[in-house]
Structure prediction request, 443 residues.
Amino acid sequence: MTIYALSTGPGISGVAIIRISGEETSEIIKCLTNKKIPKPRMATLRKINNINTSELIDEGIIIWFPGPESYTGEDMAEIHIHGSKAVILAVQSEISKIKNCRLAEPGEFTKLAFQNGKINLLKAESIADLISSETEIQRLQAVKIMKGKSSAKFNQLREKLLKILSFVEAQIDFPEEDLPDENLNKIKKDSSEVINEIKKILDDQKVGEIIREGFKIAIVGPTNAGKSSLINNLSNREVAIVSEIAGTTRDVIETHLNIDGYPVVISDTAGIRDSKDEIEKKGIKLSLKKAENADLKLVVVDAKSIDLSGFLNDLLKNNAILVVNKSDLLDEELDPKVSKFEHVQISIKDNLNIDKLISKIKINLKKKFITEEDILITRERHRQHLIHCVDHLKNFSDKNSKKDFDKAAEDLRLATRHLGMIVGKVDVEEILGSIFNDFCIGK
Prediction:
C-alpha cells in the first residue's frame, strides 16, 4: 500500500508539501507530470496535471527519494506546490485515483521508518517531541535524544545483560560443568553494575518528563481569593471568568506559558470550601488532586481573611508559595504565622508585587530543571520499563546466588526484554499505535 499526506501545516501558505511513500510512488509522479522520474534527491520543476484530462493543476517542485535511501526506507517523493486549499485538494484527489493509494494515518511515515530499521523507537519519539516543542529547552531535549546517546546507553546495558545470560544458559546446558569462579564473579559484578546504572537514571527528579510535558503549577485556595484573576494576569489574557460570586470556577482551567524558555502549565482550580452543590464538590475534588500532582502550588488567600488551618496548612507543607492577595486593602501587619511560609504579598487589582511572585516561580523552575545527566527519561513508558528491569534483575541476583539457574535465566530474559522495549529491539506492536497517534498526519 502506498500512502500520501500533506506534511506542512493546514491552511493557506506560500508552499505546501505533499509526501508520498510506497511502491506506487514512481507511478504517481509519472502520471501527475507525464514525464519520467526526476534524478534522485534533486529538486526538479514540473507541471502537475489532472491524470485523466492533462489539465494543469499547478507548477511545483518534485523531489524523488528512491528506497531504501529515504526517510521511510521505501520509494518516497515530495511534491512542493502552492499552499492553497484548492491546489492541495486537487493534487490529493489525483493521487487517490492511483490503485493501492490511500491517505496516511497520523505518524505513519515515521512508523514505516521505524519498522524498516531507519530509526529506533526512542528517535521516533524524539521526532514527535521536536515537532511539538514550544520552548527552547524542549527543543534541546528532543535534539539530545535524537543524537542517540540514550539509545546507545540502553543498548549497551542490554548487551551486557545478554552476555550474562549466555553464561547462565551455558550452565543450564552443561550442568555437570561448574562455572569458573571468575565467571560467577563477573555475573554478580555486571548485574550489580546494570542495577546501579539504571537506578541512577531513575533518580532524575523526573526532569525529562517535566521538560516534555511542562512544569505544572496549580493555583489553589479558598473561594473569592483571586485565583482566576491571577491566572489571567500571568497569562496576559482572559483565561478564566472572574466574578464576585463565590464558586464561579468549577472545573480545572489550564493554560500553557513560556517563562524564560521553560514550559509551564498553569491550572486554575475551583475554590475549596464546604459545599452541598454536587458539581462544585466534584470541582473541589479535582482541585485537590491537581494540587497533589503539581510541581508547584500557588496557594492564594485573601489578605483580609487568612486562615491557614486545615487543608491550607496541608497544601503549604511542600512545593508551595503562599500568595497573599488583596494586600492593598490591608490596614495592619500580616499575621506572624504567615512569615513561617514562603510567601509574597500581592494586589492583582493594583498589579502590586506580581513581578516578585514571578521571580519566586522562576527560582522554583530553575531548581526543578537542573540536571547534569545526558540520559533523560522523557516518558512514563520508559520509566516503567526501567523499574521492571531493576525488579527482575534483583530477582535474578537472588535466584542466581541460590544456583537456581533456570528461574534466574527467565528473570534475566525479562529484564533484557524491558530494556529492549524502550528502543524497540523486541516486539512492541502493542504500543506502536499509542506512540504514533501522537504525531501529526504527514510525519
The first strand starts at residue 2 and ends at 6. Residues 82 and 192 are 59 Å apart (CA to CA). The longest helix spans residues 149-173.
